Each structure stands twice: as structure tokens, then as C-alpha cells.
Amino acid sequence: MKSWYHSWIAAIRIARRDAWRSKGRSLLVLSMIALPILGVSAADLTVRSAQLSPEQKLERTLGTADATVQLSGMGGEPIYQDPSGEMYAPVGGYDRMTRPGRSEDAPANLAAALPPGAQTVKDSTGNAKIRTRHGLLDTSLRELDTTGPLVKGLLTLDRGRMPQQAGEVAATNAFLEESGLYVGSSVTPRGTTKSYKIVGAYELPDRLNDSQLLAPPGTLLSPLDQALRAGGLRGVGADDSYLVKVGGEGFTWNMVKAANAKGAVVVSRAVVLDPPADSEVPLYQQQRKDAYSPGMATRATELAILATVVGLAMLEICLLAGPAFAVGARRSRRQLGLVGANGGARSHIRAIVLSGGLVIGVAAAVVGIALGVLLTFLLQPVLEDRLGNRFGHFDVRPLELAGVAALAVLTGLLAAIAPAITASRQTVLASLTGRRGVRRANRVLPVIGLVAVALGVAIALLGTASGMGFAVVAGGSAIAELGIVALTPVLVGLFGRLGRWLPLSPRLALRDAVRNRGRTAPAVAAVLAAVAGTVAVATYQHSQDVQMRHEYVAELPDGAGRVMVSEAGAHRDVPAVREALTRQLPVSVRADVDRISVGRPDCEPYSSDKGCGRAEILVPKEQRCPLFEGTKGPDDFTPEQAQALRSDWRCQDTPHYAEHDTVIADGKLLTALAVDDPAAAKALAAGQAVSFDRRNVKDGKVTLRVITDLEKAEDASMRGEDAPGQDKVLPVHQAPDSVNAWGFKLILPAATAKAAGFTVVPVGSYFTLDGKASSEQRQKLEGELDRMGVDAALKIESGYQGGTEMMVLILTVFAGLVTIGAAGIATGLAQADAEADLKTLAAVGAAPRVRRTLSGFQCGVVAAMGVVLGSAAGVLPAIGLRLTERREQIGWYEEAIAQGYGAGPKPYVPVVVPWETLAALLVLVPLGAALLAALVTRSSGALARRAAG
To answer: Is the model more confident about 805 or about 906?
Structure first.
């Protein structure tokens, strides 16, 4: 035992000395191992520090109060909730709610749900658009008395002071950053002329990115609401909650259930910290506790994916670092030979080389973790801003960091195993004389590789054919890739047969690589793994991009556009928006469109607020789709009947959508929409409405029903009846079914709408362009709209715009860097092996460029072999995943057809290889690696006498 201990101590000392002497190589390997360790340790610290304890969460939610109480939003219906207050449901389930979601049925005063005698602080919030230096910003408004002790911990004052009187507000740092304002500025909400002075800046510890303004109670929300309604705009709907302090044992579970009976949701400090038993929670008796939580299978899949990613990352590092350790062992072979000549056993040789991995691994662990801790500490404000919440505390967990350090040490040892075994098999004579000797190829590793490839392919095919899911296909692909890595020495040998057709320099480089597979195979395998991952992701994403391009449904004709203003009360700004559109863009045809308005002028389209209404087309009953007329919908029919009805003209829908399917416009709209129907244009010019959906037309007429009582309309809908209202019957021209109206169902001429008694308001314009709008023109238009303070939606149809190019480019660059790094390491090892031959060439008069040329081709050959093998290995998993998707989507499609549901066109799930990416990898990366190696290699080495051998 003592001898073993001392031998390892000596081996570690030798390894430490060699690492210090070869600083460049040691730094390279240390960086490869330390960088992932730095990332993992920093991620661990960030995640743990961002995780809040229950007490910290409650402080940020409740301040110093015992509980917060707010309405559930279920119309005052009694509810059940879980102890945390995060999950709740109406008593008896949603199906038994009398009027789901009707807030007007809630208690008139939320205070009725509070315990008597409790100390309370009201917390009111709403939303409005605030004028800023850049235009309009959708901002949260809040009224809260910040002078009371209950709010401590909810807010953190950064600078200035909290507002104390009317006309003062405090703003979050996020609001100030987005708005371009500062403490001391004045802000004005849209719809009012009253300004508020910003007297302080604060932050919400758990919502750093929220844009919010804070004012004393009664000074912001109510005055703004009155001003908006007076101006014909939609008011600010305030949501109230209460911070409650009851003293004693706090807000108990019985008090929570009492508040639930009045339709209120409670987050109680006492209940969260000491929750009741599941048997005492009525919600868990009504539905399962884990009804909405991920199952064990999902967690197991996530852990399996994480383990696979970590394992493949370790493999990549080992494959990259292994040749570097081999370089060190080769350069230290005389020293290792002296150890053997002085009685050292092969185990001592292995211990010395393994100690190199141990020393580098420990150093990488120390450096990586130290830098991870330091960077996380220094970048804590940046990380908190990214995450959107402040850390609870800087949480360093020694056991977890020790596990990360062990991972670094293990990676260093694994990377040094193969070089250690190779060095221990060298004879003492060969080590002392510098001869490499001849060693038989390993016959076990190729067999293991073949078995792994066969097993991985079988698992992937099983997952594809049986529909077991992506995890099985990905797992099988990973096993197959590991098998190919094990087969790399054999595959490298096969590449050697190409040497007979190559010129002298590349032939020498290829034969040298094949003869020295011990150093070539790990580098090729590292390139293979990196390129395979890149090609797999690139192929999968490119195939998805082609599929999405095929499935893309344009909103407008190519080159056409629209600008719409649908915000409540903003119709008065539409004429100015139209003029700005014509002024900033090369508009060829502009078709102005209006909509029908029912009720108050501040009502938004499809609003359910009191005093609002709507006008909708009344489809004749005999022309409605039978699938949706029964009490159970499609379930009233057999699958065969339902499928037959799907082909009925009454059940056909257009894939296009328009925000307002009934508009007031003239013939210019047909031109803007590229509708080629002279009869329709003639009808509009004659003052006749035009219909684009024949289901709505009966006897040449269409019926528009004006609905003013939305509560009665909802009650009628629940009974399966038509909403009551006043009918307007209009003669129409029905356009042919072949006409694509881009979602419009009915166009009314302005004179016809006026004669029918409709109130219309402008909503926007559709247009065509004379050429294309440049980015500068669009920016000028959007900037002018911002300065006008109008929330206008601009859309110019330009076809499908893919978004995967940047990701593929990043992956390609990553694969290129790994390829150059691995090939460079292999080239360095080759140069170390061939130094004697290069000196002989120089001695006999070889040109200086021979060294550069040979180095370049050695690097290029390794890169080319790895890229070719990686490209072939990477396409296969992508094909497997796409075939799995195809099977799933076709299965869903066929199931929908079998059940009688409309499934649309048959799914198109192609497998498309990104040939441009492959070309860049196959040609540019090896070429770049070869040129780089040639450039950094010295043309001549120092002449020295060659050892006799």
C-alpha cells in the first residue's frame, strides 16, 4: 500500500513538472476542460442563487402582511384553491358555473371577503398607454400606499423618493429605460392632458423587467378612467387586491376557505409555510393534486436527455484532449524509457501519463470553478436583469461544486487513458532510441463499434416505426454515433486506399495519418462528433423550414399591405394614419376601409363590456354546417357521416382570416386585394353590397343582425339559439367561389351602410405599392406613427420569412472551429513524430516550403476525414427524427379523418439536406484548416544530427 502511494506521488510530481515545462500544451488542454466547467459551475450558482426560499418568495409577494386577497375572476362563484393559491377552480368544476367569467357577478366590494377587524392595504393595478420620448408604451399603473409597514419588501427604492401627493408618480427602472425618461421628467397618459412628475425610481425584486408607474391611492387610476371615458375612449379597468394583517396565528386555512366561499383567492403566509394535509384540501378531492404537473415519465426523459448531452460533451472533450496528452507522452518517451530502464513497471508508466490527466483535470477544476464563482459574482446584476428577478442570496453549494470538480478530474483522466496505455506498451529500447515500433491493431474496439452501430440503428428504427417518440430516436442515434466513433480507426484505414490517386504531398500526409491511427483517430472522431451534431441540427431545421414554407398561408397578395387601428376610441386618428401612409410609402392604390360600430364610441371590436354591441352576419339555418348545429356538435354523427359532411359546401372554410370580415369600402379594395371580378366592382360602383361567402346569401340577400344586449346574446348562445337583435336585410352580389377575398365575407358601399342606418367608424386602409418599400421608408412611417401616439398595426405581405439561417450559421462556425482545433492538435502530434524525417529532408536540400506543405496537408486530411464521416453520421438522426414526425402527423391526420373531423390537406413532412451547409463543411472547413496549418508552421527547423537507428 505504501509503495503504491509513493509511486503515485512520484508520478504526480513528474506530471506536474512536465505540465509546467510544456505550458502551451498544458494551457490548451486546461482550457478545453476548464471552459465547460466554468459554464457548468456558473450555471449552478446562477440557478441556485435565483431559487428563492418560501420565506423570500412570500416577502416579495406579501411584504410583511399575513396574506393577500384578490378576486378569482370567476364571477364571484365559490371556489376551491390549493394551499399555495396558485391553482384554483370553481366548486363543482367549470361545467357547473352559471355564468363563467362574468366579473359583474362578483362581490361589489372585495372587502366583504376579508376577516373583520383585519388591518388592510389596498393594492390597485391597471394598464394604459403612456406617452414617452419614442411614442407610446403599454404600462402597468399601480396605486399603493407605500407609507404603511405592510408593503415593506414589495418594492425597492433605487433613487429619489416615493410619491406622496397627487400629480406625483414613481417609475420602475425598466419603464425609465424603455421610455427614455428619467427621475424629474413628466409623463402623460394617452387620452388625458394631465401630467405626472416622476419623483423616484424603484424596482420589483421578482419582476425587474416590468414597466410600471406607482401613485398614491386615488390619484391616478380613477382620474385617468374618467378622462378616458369623457373623451370617448375605453376606461382603465382596475384590479384590486388587499394586503391583510390579522395577527395571532396569521391567516389560517379555515379563513382561506371562508374567503374562497366568497369568490376570493388567498395567498397566506401561515398556510404556505405550514400547509394542511391533502385530505383537508377540498380542491384535491375534486381533482387530482398532480393534474397539471409534469409526470414521472417527463422528468425521466428530461434527465435522460441531460445525461446524454453531458456524456457527449465529455466525449468531445476527451477526443480533443486525448491527442494532446499523446503529444506529451511522445515527447516524454525518453524520460518514460529511463523510468523503465531503472526498474519501473508498465503500471508506473501508465501512472505517469494518467497523472498528467489528473494534474490538468485538477487544475482545470480549480480554475474553472474559481472563474465561474468570480464571474457569477461580478456579473450578478447582469444575470439578474437577464433572469428578471433579484437573487435571494449568493448561494454557493460546496457539494455540487465538488461534483463539478470531480467531472473535470474524470474528464482529464479519461482523456489520458488511451495515451497511457499506448505509452506503457512501448519497449524500453524503443522509448530510449525514439523508435515507434509496430503494434497490432486493436480488434476488439471495431467489434464493439459495429455492435453499437447496429444496436443504435435498430433502436432508432424501432422508435421511428413504432411511434415511441423522439427520445428513443435520439437515444438510438447517440448510440450509433458512439459506435461510429469506435470504428474511426478502421474507417481511417479505409481512407488510406485513396492515396494512390493523390499527388505526392497529400499522399504522404494521408499515409502518415493512416499508419499512425493512434493519434489520427481521436482527432477524426472529435471532428466527426462536432460535425455530426451540426449536420443533424442543420438538416432537421432546414427540413422544418421547407415544411413551414410549404404550409405558409399568406395574409394578403404578395406586395400588398394594410394598416389597421383597432384600439378603442382611436378611430379619430385613422385619417392622420392614412395620410402618413401615403406620405412615407410609395403607395399605388389605397383603399380606405371602415367598420360597423354598435354601442358606445369607445367600444373595441368584439368587446363584451356593458354598453357595447356588435353586428354579425346571420347565416340562414338551412345553409349552416350541420356539424355545428347539434347539441353535441360533430359527436351527433357517426365518423362516416361527419367525414361526408366535411365535404359539404356548407362546411367549407377559407384558410384566410380578416380581423373585420364585414367592412365598408369601395372598388379600390378589390384592386388592393387583387380580386379579378368585374361584376363585383360594378356592383360596388352601383351601391350594391358584395358577398364572398355563398352560405350567407339567400334569394340574393344577406341579413346583418345588430346585437345591442350582449348578456341576452350570451344566454341565447348557451341555449343554442341565435342572439336576439335587429335585422338589416340587404341585396347583394355573390362573387364566384373561385375568388379569393383574403378573409372578407361582405363589403358594403358607404351609401348602402348609411341607408341601412349603420354607424361606421374608420379602421384603416389596404394598399398596393409602386415597387417595394425600403427598410428606411418603413422605419420613417413607424417613427411617424410613434410620434403621433397611435398604436397602428402595419403589415406588408412579403411571403414566408425563415428564421433558421442564423442558427445554422452559428453551428457551422462552431463545427469549423472544433475541426480546426482537432486537426491542429493531430498535426502537432504528426510533426512531433516526423521531426526526424523533416530534418533529414532539410539536410538533403529539400525546399523550405516542403515543411509547410506537408503540415497543411496533414491538417487538411484529418479535417476532411472527420467532416466526411461526420456529415454521413449526422444526416441519419435527422432523417430518423423527421420520419418520426411524419408518422405522428400522418397518424393524427388519419385519426381525425376516421373520427369525422376536418383535417385539411395531408401533412407534408419532407426530409431536405442543406447542401450549402454541407458544401461549406466538406470544402471550406478542410481547406481553411490546411491553409491555417501551413501559415503557422515554420518553413525551416533547426538542423540537428539525426540519431542513429
So the answer is: 906
| Per-residue pLDDT, 875 | 82
The β-bridge partners of 587 are: 769
Name, in order, each residue with C-beta under 8 angstroms of 616's C-beta and a sequence gap of 6 or more: 662, 704, 705, 707, 723
C-alpha grid cell, residue 868: 466526411
Residue 79 has pLDDT above 80, yes or no: yes
- Closest alpha carbon to 690 in 655, 739, 724, 725: 739
Whats the size of the chain, residue-wise? 949
- 3-class state of residue 247 by DSSP: coil
Rounded to whole angstroms, the Cα distance separating 448 from 480 reads 11
Q: Angle at which helices 849-898 and 925-936 pack, to 10 degrees?
A: 160
Handedness of CA 657, 663, 669, 672 (dihedral sign): negative
What span, in angstroms and rounded, lies between the C-alpha atoms of 570 and 788? 11
pLDDT at 945 over 60: no
Print burial letters for 355-377: b (CB count within 10 Å at least 16), e (below 16).
Answer: bbbbbbbbbbbebbbebbbebbe
- Main-chain dihedrals φ then ψ at residue 594, nearest 5 degrees: -120, 165
DSSP string, 550-586: HH---SSSTT-EEEE--STTGGGGHHHHHHHHHHHS-
| Mean pLDDT, all residues of the chain | 80
CA dihedral 808, 809, 810, 811 (to 10 degrees): 50
Cell numbers found for residue 569: 376610441
Element counts in the chain: helices (H) and strands (E): 31, 22
Decide: helix, strand or coil at residue 120.
strand
Which residue stretches of 268-345 are H helix?
Answer: 269-273, 282-286, 296-331, 333-341
Name residue, grid cell 388519419: 894
At residue 497, the pLDDT reads 79
Q: pLDDT band at 532, cuts 50/70/90?
A: confident
Q: 769, 685 in Cβ contact below 8 A? A: no
In terms of Cβ atoms closer than 10 Å to its own Cβ (0-12, 13-18, 19+), residue 193 is: exposed
Contact 29, 324 (CB under 8 A): yes
User: By C-alpha distance, which of 611, 944, 583 is closest to 784?
Assistant: 583
Per DSSP, the three-state class of 666 is: coil
Q: What is the pLDDT of residue 107?
A: 44
Q: Percentage helix, strand, coil, to 5, in the chain?
A: 55, 15, 30
pLDDT band, residue 93 (cuts 50/70/90): confident
Question: What span, in angstroms and rounded, lies between the C-alpha atoms of 390 and 203?
Answer: 10
Q: Residue 491: left if φ>0, alpha if ψ -120 to 50, beta else—which one?
A: alpha
Question: For position 314, what pLDDT does the model report?
Answer: 64
What phi and psi values does residue 611 have, to the nearest 5 degrees?
A: 85, 0
State the Cα–Cα distance between residues 294 and 275, nearest whole angstrom: 21
What is the distance between the alpha carbons of residues 740 and 736, in angstroms, rounded to a whole number? 9
Three-class DSSP category at 144: strand
Q: Taking a C-beta distance cutoff of 8 angstroms, is the pair 743, 661 a contact? A: yes
The Cα–Cα gap between 483 and 462 comes to: 18
Residue 51 has what DSSP assignment?
Answer: P
Q: How far apart are CA 670 and CA 689, in angstroms?
A: 13
Please, what sign has the CA dihedral across residues 163, 166, 168, 170?
A: positive
